[in-house]
TrEMBL record:
<dbReference type="Pfam" id="PF13489">
    <property type="entry name" value="Methyltransf_23"/>
</dbReference>
<dbReference type="InterPro" id="IPR029063">
    <property type="entry name" value="SAM-dependent_MTases_sf"/>
</dbReference>
<keyword id="KW-0808">Transferase</keyword>
<dbReference type="GO" id="GO:0008168">
    <property type="term" value="F:methyltransferase activity"/>
</dbReference>
<dbReference type="GO" id="GO:0032259">
    <property type="term" value="P:methylation"/>
</dbReference>
<keyword id="KW-0489">Methyltransferase</keyword>
<protein>
    <submittedName>
        <fullName>Methyltransferase type 12</fullName>
    </submittedName>
</protein>
Length: 209
């Protein structure tokens, strides 16, 4: 049901993310599809940070990977949703349907790993996904990860997708504030280089050590 509701959201159906505490927020699908002009400065800034070959973990419909491809940058997107992968490929992005924690091509050779749109919270284990990013990076490579600019600390929770008349299964997620970036980087074999606040969003650049 999670996959079905996610694909329906990407197809245009209104869908929400429900938190275990009862809070519900509409999924920012138009942002993921690259249809929000207000997000263009953020995307531009993130892409300018990509240095050489880039892999995006949880690429969704591939707006960032597609832009890198059009600019001639070697890039690969990874997502578990077959529908998201098809949408990304339709934009000209090289993408594959896979578990971001499973075997991936080029491990240890990527110059940049992207974790954008909350994907540092995947599996409610930000240290695990950052360690995975480090494993994928070449010496001298860096991870560009978006953290929550308005949230302090890390909270592990359960969330689920909902429409107005259906609910998917609960799954683990983390809310991770930008104030945690330095400590998480250190615990994950990375070094915090810079924090960039772009509008109301925040991105950390972390080097492989």
């Amino acid at each position: 049901m999670f996959g079905e509701l996610y694909e329906r959201a990407l197809a245009g159906e209104r869908c929400f993310l429900r938190h275990a505490d009862g809070h519900r927020a509409e999924l920012p699908v138009q942002r993921w599809l690259g249809n929000c002009a207000v997000d263009e400065p953020f995307d531009d800034a993130v892409l300018a940070m990509c240095d050489g070959s880039t892999i995006e973990l949880g690429c969704g419909p591939g707006r960032l990977i597609a832009r890198l491809a059009r600019a001639g940058v070697p890039a690969l997107g990874v997502d578990r949703s077959s529908h998201a992968v098809r949408l990304a490929q339709a934009l000209g992005a090289a993408t594959m349907r896979a578990d971001v924690f499973g075997p991936l091509p080029g491990a240890g050779s990527w110059r940049t790993v992207l974790l954008i749109d909350g994907n540092v919270g995947l599996g409610a284990d930000p240290e695990r996904i950052l360690r995975r990013s480090r494993h994928l990076l070449a010496d001298g490579g860096h991870c560009i990860a978006e953290f929550d600019a308005k949230y302090a600390g890390t909270t592990n929770t359960q969330v689920r997708l909902e429409t107005d008349d259906e609910s998917g299964p609960w799954f683990p997620w983390s809310m991770v504030g930008i104030d945690c970036a330095d400590e998480l980087a250190e615990r994950s074999g990375l070094r915090l280089k810079d924090v960039h606040v772009i509008g109301d969003r925040a991105v950390a650049s972390m080097a492989r050590i």
